[in-house]
């Protein structure tokens, strides 16, 4: 096998030249371009990673903000609810107080009206009863009511027990005046009868005065400073009044029951 | 047709110009052709390099080739791949292109000449100590020849020489024998079968280029890494 040593060394030189040329023209440039691209890709990835981290941070922050907003919203809602409840309670209290006040005023008015009515009723009824009694007595027994009352007084004075008499006398000591009050003018016959009885059974030196008093209304009263002997239709009137009030309340109760039933049904 | 003799198919025998000891034969001419193609393609491809997202097809192909070679070298040498890269990559590209161009009628691969493969093997022969010394210093490198003891020095030297010879002869033998086989087959069956052999020849050419450059890399790596590995062996 023949080897041309010139060609042999020329090939070595050729190869070394090729190494140099390719290193200059190809490898360096291509590798630089690849490195540059790799660096760019890495930079892009880093940037993407950074963007992702930023986005995660932003998302976390938003989440946190949303949570705090929710908490704030709940707090505000609770506060609003509490305030509303308190305001509602205040309003209810004031309304209740107002209602109670109105009710009290109304009850007061009703009571006053009732009292006035009962007073009138009592007065009218007394007058009426008195007139009726007088007329009944006149028609049936041909007797005067005042006379009859005087007779009752006389009987009472006569029936006084000793200690009662003593008490009566003691209260008379200061003035020796006995006042007899009546709603109507006492007839002279009756006066005389009373005078006699008083002087005979209580004390001889007593001066009896007769007065007309609308307060007595029906009947009469024999008063000293501390005691009195009386007869009037007041007792009957009291009974009447009680019965009347009871009847009145019974009626109103029935009405209330009906109203409450209707309210429950509605 | 007479079967072509080895002397006659070697491009060394085709002398184009001779002046004294200066001989310009087909081997040199085809070598220059391959060099010219490599350099021109390199210039064309690297003229407009892009480091962005879009890149030209030529750049893409070159990046695949260069990146592939760099990866192979990295796997063998583990580190300093870029240091050996120009030498190994040029070996591969030159041999591969020389072998691949054989599909052109009239072209004879310069690598089918023992002169060329021998000169390449000599380059490797010298590259091994150069890289080894640059890597670990002359003393450490020379110590390798006396390991495990001085008796092994002749064997080391013999090993260096024989593997250089093996490199040269392996490439030359493969390429030359391939061309010889194709020439014989052309005489026996002129149609179709030589084409199949040509295709096989392309594959063999690429494989031989790969084997040559990988072996060169392995030799260089063994020379540069032996020093670094010894302390580890001692420890283990």
Tell me the number of strands of chain A: 4
- Number of E-state strands of chain B: 2
Helical element count of chain B? 8
- Tally of contiguous helical segments of chain A: 5
Q: What level of helicity do the residues of chain A show? A: over 70%
Q: Share of helix among residues of chain B?
A: over 70%
Shape, per Cα inertia axes of chain B: globular
Q: Looking at the structure, what is the overall shape of chain A?
A: rod-shaped
The residue-averaged pLDDT of chain B reads 83
Keywords:
heterodimer; A: 266 residues; alpha+beta; hypothetical protein PF0899 fold; 4-stranded mixed sheet; 5 helices; B: 236 residues; two-stranded antiparallel sheet; 4% strand; globular; disordered C terminus
Please, could you describe this protein's structure?
- In chain A, 16% of the residues are buried.
- A four-stranded mixed sheet of chain A has the order 2-1-3-4.
- By secondary structure, chain A is α+β, with helices and mostly antiparallel strands.
- Chain A has a domain of 89 residues: 2-Layer Sandwich (hypothetical protein PF0899 fold).
- In chain A, β1, α4 and β2 form a beta-alpha-beta unit.
- Chain A is built from five helices and four strands.
- In chain A, α1 packs antiparallel against α5 and α2 runs parallel beside α4.
- The model of chain A has no long low-confidence stretch (mean pLDDT 83).
- Chain B has one domain.
- Chain B has a two-stranded antiparallel sheet.
- In chain B, β1 and β2 form a beta hairpin.
- Chain B is mainly α and 236 residues long.
- At the A-B interface, α1 of A face β2, α2, α3, α4 and α5 of B.
